[in-house]
Amino acid sequence: MTYTELLEQARKNMDGYCLACPECNGAACKNKIPGPGGKGTGGVFRRNFEKLQEIKINLDTLYDGEPTDTSVELFGRTFRYPVFAAPIGAMKLHYGHLHDDLSYNAELVEGCCSAGIAAFTGDGIDPQVYGGALESIRNAGGVGIPTVKPWDVGLMKEKIRMAEAAGAIAVATDVDASGLALLKNVPTPVSPKTVTELGEVVASTRLPVVVKGIMTVRGALKALEAGAYGIVVSNHGGRVLDQTPATVEVLPEIAQAVQGRMKIFIDGGIRTGLDVFKVLALGADAALIGRPFVTAVYGGGAAGAVLYAEKVGGELAETMAMAGANRLSDIGRDMVWL
Question: Is 234 part of any known ligand binding site?
């Protein structure tokens, strides 16, 4: 199956919720929620993509060339590419009836594991969503990162215990979900967390904890103070608050403030290996990709996820070769043009 064929099949399977556009830039779906669009005007989704396209790559093939190495060490293991699938949920509501959250996560986790990377999986009101994701991660030998919503601290700890029992390599929490109206009127609602509360969650586990939804230096330093292994610079794909900056716009100052004291992941508009190269050059350790992995799974299941991951990884390797980087540690700020 080619990538074009994958997109064609995904369009048929998405019931019109998502158009599986060749360029997933938010132009066609805009503020389509339910659906894959963004909050309010949908402008943040588009801004994430557009600001990445404004960054250009400096061509340089005068260097001591060696075989290109795209591997990265994170969570105590080596991954083939510095690329992870981002957590996405409510599949039937937003993408079509082919998959529910359980079947989507099963295909996604299997595909990412086969491609030599890993998937972040989601959480939800229905406990089967999180439990099903953990089962998929367990079946993949623990290669996956379950993401816990910012419930009360007790429930967060309980869900982390479940992740440990499943053998997960790490756990995440998407703190920017604290403003989701859907999760406010439930028996155990989500809520913002203080540094003390987040620190209590982090200290409760031996697993590396990644805090997703950081968009300021202040937020990054709070996560660092709480003992987080890493952060995800993320505005939730533009789906929780309109009129925010693009993630790539705030990445450099956050990376400068953190100074290597914790790992930095980033999502938001990243679609190709060229985009991955750009965010690495600006200080990220790895990238998360959301909507295109959904398209890949709806178009080809686990094999679709493998195809897309290898497409992005191949583009990254080619970009590195043309920009003078033999390995990820060679990629620097001077390799991109703003």
Answer: yes
